[in-house]
Amino acid sequence: MEKVQLLLRQHVGAPCAPCVAVGDKVKKGTLIATPTGLGANIFSSVYGEVSEILEDRIVIKADAEQPDEFVPIDVPEDASKLDMIKAAGIVGMGGAGFPTGIKLNIDLSATEQGEFREDINPELPKDFKLEHSYILINDSECEPGLAHNIKQTIEQTDKVIRGVKYCMEITKADKAIFAIKKKNREAVLKLLDALKDEENISVHLLPDIYPMGEERAVVRECLGVNLDTTQLPSAARSVVINLETVAKIAEAIEEKKPCISKNVTVRGNIKGGSEAHVFMDVPVGISVGELIEMAGGLDKDDSVGEIIMGGAFTGRAAELDEPTTKTTGAILTTYRMPDLTDKKVGLLVCACGGNEARMRTIAEKMHGEVVSVCRCKQAIENKPGAPLKCLRPGNCPGQVKNNMQFKKDGCEYIIIGNCSDCSNTVMASAPQMGLKVFHQTDHVMRAIGHAQYRQLTVSKQVDQDINVED
Predict the structure, then answer these.
(1) Where is the RnfC Barrel sandwich hybrid domain (predicted)?
(2) CATH of domain 261-335
């Protein structure tokens, strides 16, 4: 590692402002940039020297020797736990990047339940009332093929649970629930054993379908209510927080450790094999290429397609020299995509996958001619230009109308980015209309040895009982 590049915007909000100068010597944990509005502190993730300060990043030339020691966050002796979290620069490490100190600055014991829309909650009684307030831990490892959250659950169970308790204390939540897919049996059993004497912390099992980790999906699965696209989890008297973020909270409070590292899954068409290569506590700001080399390196033939930073559904194409951030969860390398030269293509844009720009990029790389664009009818645009939100994530309606439009517009192929359930509804009618389907994740799924998203074979319902003795 010769250098790290620390972007000044690694979170929701405005870019941070540098507080170091070129030539400054820094250590792991040296504060190098501070928020100018909504944001989070940024620290050096290595020992080294500031070599450049650019408009969007600070570049640090790394020393050859990298001691384990770090500079603790600078807080008063009587600092509150919430102040420690803010000082540590922790953000939502599942990809959202919202500053955690702001998210946890809520008194859930005094939070009123919101109004739940009857049209998306038809089974709720009119007098439905949530009896408790909750911390909901998103341990779903939502994107297919990722494994770092589950590895941390297994290897750092006690730390994670301590982090959850701090979250409960700060927000005055009555209960906490781990939302985790039932397929991750080792992690589930480890949690159940560690929580056997905890009356107020439980485990909720999720089906292995995408997008079970979407924030409102976690609320629905754990608490039984559908929030609309404008509501935050606080409407259900809850806060949803990522598993890795919870561990960072424990580190900040117990060790005064700043947020300087990230757990990352590297996977796909690489020499090291298609299984998940999980790297824990990687310095924030190292390059995509370095992570791929750590996993064995790229194949040198022409079979490599895209390099994706993030998950197969919500990630984006990246270059080898791009830096990782606090929210980078995965680097995926893919097989080449099929050639659709001279083929007319329709795009079905879903809130759960890539936006229209990402879908058009994929079509362009396949050399297809985009002649039609439709949206899933549950994809809601709350404000002009805002990212789409799904009305009921992971529980979707039919797509016959959209498929009929694609057929009318002369499409031969359609590219979709839909969730498991929505892809299933596309496949119920598209082939009968002579439409050939390419899911935006197909080239990723082939590379990681995962089933392509077509017809749903996993039930959306999960029996909550699990036999520990099995």
Answers:
(1) 3-58
(2) 3.10.20
**Inter-residue contact 446 to 304 (CB < 8 Å):** no
Residues of the chain with CATH 3.40.50.11060: 344-448
CATH topology assigned to domain 344-448: Rossmann fold (3.40.50)
User: Which residue do the tokens 């099992």 mark?
Assistant: 205
Token output for 291: 């992570």
- The Cα-based distances of 186 to 155, 467, 468 in angstroms read 11, 12, 10
Instruction: For 15-56, list the strands marked E by DSSP.
Output: 17-18, 25-26, 31-34, 42-43, 48-53
**Rounded (10°) angle between helices 148-155 and 185-194:** 40
CATH 3.40.50.10540 fits 81-114+129-255, yes or no: no
Half-sphere exposure of 124 (CA within 13 A, CB side): 18
Predicted structure pTM score = 0.96
Intervals of CATH 3.10.20 along the chain: 261-335
| CATH code that applies to domain 3-62 | 2.40.50
The alpha carbon torsion through 283, 325, 313, 450 (nearest 10 deg) reads -10
Tell me: cis bond preceding 211? Omega within 30 of 0 counts.
yes
Q: Which residue matches tokens 């659709």?
A: 340
> Where are the domain boundaries for CATH 3.40.50.11540 in the chain?
81-114+129-255
Residue among 165, 176, 139 nearest 254 (CA): 165
Q: What is the dihedral of CA 276, 10, 165, 255, to 10 degrees?
A: 90
Nearest of 418, 414, 409 to residue 436 by alpha carbon:
414
The two three-digit tokens of residue 193, written as one number: 């054993």
Tell me the C-alpha to C-alpha distance, in Å, between residue 368 and each of 33, 362, 464. 43, 9, 45
Dihedral through CA 141, CA 261, CA 154, CA 132, nearest 10? Answer: -60
CA–CA separation, 244 and 153 (whole Å): 9
Per residue of the chain (470 residues), what is the pLDDT tens digit?
A: 899 999 999 999 999 999 999 999 999 999 999 999 999 999 999 999 999 999 999 999 999 999 999 999 999 999 999 999 999 999 999 988 999 999 999 999 999 999 999 999 999 998 999 999 999 999 999 999 999 999 999 999 999 999 999 999 999 999 999 999 999 999 999 999 999 999 999 999 999 999 999 999 999 999 999 999 999 999 999 999 999 999 999 999 999 999 999 999 999 999 988 999 999 999 999 999 999 999 999 977 677 899 999 999 999 999 999 999 999 999 999 999 999 999 999 999 999 999 999 999 999 999 999 999 999 989 999 999 899 999 999 888 789 999 999 999 999 999 999 999 989 999 999 999 999 999 999 999 999 999 999 988 877 788 887 665 44
